[in-house]
Amino acid sequence: MKTFKFKDINEFLGTRQLGAIARKKLLSLMNDTDERISLDFEGVKVVSNSFADECLAKLLYEMSFEELKRRTTFVSVDDFARQNIAIAFRRRLNAMKQEVL
Fold it and tell me: 3-state SS string over the chain?
């Protein structure tokens, strides 16, 4: 299993700009390996909804939600970050459904 350490991006993951940077690095890692990737949030103090959407939820344009769940696992995510990540995925999935209609 490979590990993607979000703290290497920043302790405060609050902007879409940081989210885009992290998504590009994460996609590069995902394209370089077939191994499952541990999304490690240890040492991260803030994960905003904007960051979660830009970094994680927009991965749904690259792969299905099922594939993303199969290829990743979350580690050391506090409750606030977990909520923001879940909201970002829910909103992005709903937006994508609307795009199809």
Answer: CEEEEHHHCCCEECCHHHHHHHHHHHHHHHHHCCCCEEEECCCCCEECHHHHHHHCHHHHHCCCHHHHHHHEEEECCCHHHHHHHHHHHHHHHHHHHHHHC
Residue 46's CB is within 10 A of a number of other CB atoms, namely: 14
pLDDT in single tens digits along all 101 residues of the chain: 999 999 999 999 999 999 999 999 999 999 999 999 999 999 999 999 999 999 999 999 999 999 999 999 999 999 999 999 999 999 999 998 887 76
Within 8 A by CB and 6+ apart from 4, the residues are: 25, 26, 29, 37, 38, 39, 40
pTM over the 0.85 mark:
yes
